[in-house]
Fold these 3 entries.
Entry 1:
Amino acid sequence: MTESTFSFIDWFRSSTSYINLHRDKIFVVLLGGDALANENFPNIVHDLSLLHSLGVKLVLVHGARPQITDALEKVGKTSEYHNNLRVTEASCMEVVKQTVGSLGTDVEALFSMGLAGSPMHGSDIRICRGNFVTAMPVGVHNGIDFQYTGAIRKIDANAIEQQLEQNNVVLLSNLGFSFTGEVFNLSVEEVATETAIALKADKLILFIPDDGITNSDGDLIPSLTEQDAEYFLNSYSESSGPEKLIISSALSAALKAYQKNVHRSHLISFKQNGALLQELFTREGNGTLLSSDNFEKLRQASVNDVAGIVNLIKPLEQAGTLVERSRELLETEIENFKVVEFEGLIIACAALYPMENKSGEVACIASHPAYQNNGYGVRLLASLESEARNAGLEKLFVLTTTAAHWFLEKGFKESKIADLPEQKQLLYNFQRNSKVFVKIL
């Protein structure tokens, strides 16, 4: 067998736990109009079909924002926006309904494909649409009458759940219906969020134009706390451009769902083929997860973690960045280590060795390549500093050949070999020529 075949086998075996985890769970999936228009959308349909075949209960919520704008322009009409919400005039509603209805039909058609040899062959998916969303007018805000732009009044969760129990995929749109028989144009993000909340969904999945949430350097942030999400939401809200606006709206929806006990929201690229499957069925993922679960844990290391620590530090030892430590030595020193664990995998580690004269050595800070630039080193260092203070230590020192600037940023100051504890001076390796940094606690 080829190497790619072995890789597929390994991935398929490792995905088993995720398949079992997701079976019979409710996923609400936001598919904005930009996602529907992207050339990768048929692949997303294939992946959603796979989820359905694995027993996931799907509620799809599609939007039509760019399509409505284009359709209105073709008939000589334009829309005003206030606070990222379209003002929908009565004269525009017929165009809105036609556009949304046509898109919904196109989505149904994609889920109905089943040619032999195609990814959809034998899927036999039934799509259910209905008046599951009750709406009311947004009304007048700051003197602006939003007319036929609506807000959610009620999601008929019981009716949706009945369809899911019959193994149907439920398809919602950005249209809602009032008790007076009127149709309102809704924010698709609000429909997806309120549906996830009403159904107590296990996941809210939001497709966005980027790989996920990224920091100022463009690095992907795989996981967010509530505080992180609020920080990045402010950052995206201050940015300009249509893609930033889509991401900001999706992140705002994820944050609202989080605050209403939807435990996991994923922000995933609608441009990248297979991003959904990689995010849901691999440990590394391929997007950004906002979760209320304790999905990553910083804790004291145990002997059972030695193998995981070895896997982390071995590449750094081979590169000469860290001093080599045997498995036997790690077992005897394991009480000095702290680790960050994610879904059973040790993804970061660090150690604190108490020394004479109320000092301690920080050593062996390492992160898994797939989880670098996520702040785990900072969290581990902060934890070690707290432990050192509680133990009565007054200063920390570190020897490094490659991370001088990182430690300077964390409050360490460059020092001399003579400032090290005597026992460490005797062990100093002049061949490595490590730089010495000290931090007073």
Note: The mean pLDDT is 90.
Entry 2:
Amino acid sequence: MNIKDAFKGISKLAFDTAPIIYFVEKHPDYLHKMRYIFQRVDMGQIMACSATITLTEVLNFPIQQNAVQLIKEYEDILQNSKNFQLIPIDSAIARVGAHLRAKYRLKTPDALQIATALETKSDAFLTNDFQLKRVQELPIIILSDLVI
């Protein structure tokens, strides 16, 4: 799917962890696509969010490696970016996550990410996890399916 077409009508986008990792760590297969998406976020065309569990997931490897600069980059993008918000996992999100987990047999982090997307009334969820396409409650955009 053409990347421009994929984001028509999307004003609020929830992010899974992997696309953020691809952007910050400059993954050669996905960096160009992620730059396109983050430019839309920076310009305010798309409001972005992700669950706070994203911070746990992205910081794991840099902390193990004592990669101080990488830790700072992740914290900056997730906590200080204009038009990007980290959403705390509250009891409402946890309940929706439990329902999603039961219905689709999702792993807890995936259920919480999608529950966050739903509770924030996001128009779509950006991931690279094909397994999540089975979720029917909102559009799931698979990064690797996008063409620039």
Note: The domain at 11-88+122-145 is CATH 3.40.50.1010 (Rossmann fold).
Entry 3:
Amino acid sequence: MDLAVWQTALLSLLIVAVLLLPLTVHKIEENLEAFLFVCGTVAVTVSHVWSWHLITAALQDPVKITAAVLIAGLLFRQFHRQLQQLTQWSIKKIGLRHTLMAIVLILGLTSSIITAIIAALILAEVAVMLPLERKGRIKLVVFACYAIGMGAILTAIGEPLGTVVISKLSGEPHNAGFFFLIDHLGWYVLGGVIFMAGMASSLRENTIQHAPGAKTADTSDHSVKSIFIRAAKVYLFVMALTLLGDGLKPLAMKTITHLSDGWLYWINMLSAVLDNATLAAIEVTPAITDRSITFLLMSLIISGGMLIPGNIPNIICASKLGITSKEWAKSALGLGVILMFVYFLILAAVL
């Protein structure tokens, strides 16, 4: 067996490990950031892609996201009470169901302007103020993160995926500008965001009173120490995904670059654990057709909601609310598979 075959086999096993171990091994689930960092380091080593450029990128890429998490955490610590009053006012005026629907709808539709990071930070803060059981709160966060991930793709500023696509298609023959992704994905994204808002409105209010002094995993902690710890975890998480993305890139380039739209659509479920901007950078070329663009991007943004590593909003909210990999997958994985099938049928029929 030659070196290339060994490399492919090892990287394939690594993907399986990243997918399964956080869901089945409790210690790994508790230390997900460190586990992904180790996996990223192994992937880069196996692929022989270590370089100063990669090390610099791994150190720099998380800085903006971490700074946003840190600054927002300190701001929310200062204005927590006002935000809580606004949330309670909304529940009193329009009811819990309509408040949940509004949260998902507004964050999903504005994430392309305020960015997915800011939308996720607002979501994580508001989620702990709602009268929901833990299970219901996790479902709300999952629905909203799906909506944020969909909405953020519509502009080049919403998230890195949109930036990569617009950049790679800015020349002939696509001449992609600000409204390019809105034109290609707008109606599909709008339908998805409205659907997620509807799902959120079906959640029930928590009627169980906790014992005095009891503390749940969802309790909001605004101490300076906890804010800095969360920011550090997000930094390590994003660094790990940078290493993992570059380490798995050789495998992706060998296996997916010449696949048809249908195969790419399903292969892109790797976006559940692999940065979708990395996959887009490999798959999107000026020669790509409009049909392929729609298939490719819809699969990437749906798959990104399935597991915690799939999208920055997932990472931020899971870190803030203490959501485990298993809890996230239980609420998001099945929903994501259903969405993949539904959108595949719609796109195949329409395009």
Note: Residues 3-205+217-350 form one domain.
